[in-house]
Design a protein that fits this description.
Blueprint: H1 2-19, E1 28-33, H2 41-51, E2 54-59, H3 62-72, E3 80-84, H4 86-94, E4 98-99, H5 104-109, E5 122-128, E6 131-134, E7 158-159, H6 166-179, H7 181-191, H8 203-211, E8 217-219, H9 222-229, H10 235-238, E9 241-244, E10 255-263, H11 269-279, H12 282-292, H13 305-309, H14 321-325, H15 327-336
Parallel strand pairs: 1-2, 1-3, 7-8
Antiparallel strand pairs: 3-10, 4-10, 5-10, 6-8, 6-9
Length: 340
């Protein structure tokens, strides 16, 4: 009797072991980010709170992260690459380290000009790169377009970063896409003659130089100015300049993105897509606009008081895939005209 009971108990236990699933590993997703931790982690923590999916974050320089992905290949632990500038996203796509994503939600949330047509990358925030001018030195009525900055009236008046900066490369690439290579090279040859000093430093340095009287005009990404206006030490310099939106009678002001792509080696694909969709949501877009002073990828999102103060503007609707396609031409063109 006891033996039969013991045998039945063992068989029942075996049956139970066959139907009870093993303990599941914790849900997670691995993100390589060229954005600094303080500019992305609060959003990632919010995503974890809402979904239970842990985000393992690795930050670094944009070009170094791309090289790391290329070196790691299919052994890369990264599921996602978040980086700045469509030109860099295009490089990642061309290097074969990204995989396409099909998501009706992302297609709905991200306008067509801010995403790769095949789904290799999606814009998560918009960066405008307009002209800023010293309020005490320049009448904004004398400004009009990027093309106009090549006019001799601006000789010795312009500060801008070097030609090895991806933001400037993308600006020139956008002009090649719109105006053609020949016209853009003629413009650039005259534009460099108007530099007030050899290009050096970042966008904040151009603003500081203008405030110090080294130049009267600079070309910068607006979020740098926004962050300076929030800094007690840098605010006096930032307040000496104002934003001018160029090309409003034509194609519009040049814009770029920070964007994200699924890696070709992604092991946590579903969780990765969920994070991409979260970063494109209204909640995340409002956070970008109010904390980082970047523009949302679509209309209808509340923005910071600083962005509101600069007013609305017409943005170039060029598909940003073109910035990557014309990057090599832009780099060679800038070298030919002596843009250091």
């Amino acid at each position: 009797m006891f033996g039969s009971f013991k045998k039945g108990f063992m068989l029942a236990g075996l049956a139970m072991s066959m139907v009870v699933p093993p303990l599941m590993a914790a849900e997670e997703v691995n993100l390589y980010s060229a954005r600094k931790e303080e500019l992305i982690k609060p959003l990632l923590d919010k995503f974890t709170t809402e979904t239970g999916i842990k985000v393992n974050l690795v930050t670094g320089k944009a070009d170094a992260l791309l090289q790391r992905l290329k070196s790691e290949g299919q052994n890369s632990p990264a599921d996602l690459l978040l980086t700045t500038d469509a030109g860099r996203l295009y490089r990642a796509q061309e290097a074969g380290v990204l995989a396409p994503v099909q998501s009706a939600r992302l297609d709905e949330l991200v306008p067509a000009q801010y995403r790769n047509p095949e789904g290799y990358w999606f814009g998560m925030s918009v960066r405008a790169r307009p002209i800023v001018y010293v309020k005490s030195a320049v009448d904004p009525q004398t400004l009009s377009s990027y093309e106009d900055l090549a006019d001799s009236q601006w000789k010795g008046h312009i500060c801008i970063r070097s030609s090895d900066n991806i933001y400037n490369q993308s600006l020139v690439a956008s002009m090649i896409a719109t105006n053609g290579l020949k016209a853009t090279e003629a413009w650039a040859a005259d534009f460099v003659k108007n530099f007030a000093r050899p290009p050096k430093g970042g966008d904040r340095d151009q603003i500081k130089a203008a405030a110090a009287g080294e130049c009267d005009i600079a070309v910068i990404n607006t979020y740098y100015l926004g962050m300076m206006l929030q800094d007690d030490e840098q605010r006096p310099q930032a307040e000496k300049v104002a934003v001018f939106w160029p090309n409003q009678d034509g194609r519009g002001t040049h814009v770029n993105i920070s964007g994200i792509g699924l890696t070709a080696a992604a092991a946590n694909r579903d969780n990765a897509v969920k994070l991409m969709e979260f970063l494109a949501s209204d909640e995340a877009q409002a956070w970008y606009a109010n904390v980082n002073h970047e523009y949302p990828i679509r209309d209808g999102i509340e923005v910071s008081d600083i962005l509101k103060a600069w007013g609305t503007f017409k943005a170039d609707d060029l598909n940003l895939q073109a910035l990557g396609k014309h990057n090599a031409e832009a780099v060679m063109l800038m070298d030919r005209v002596g843009w250091k």
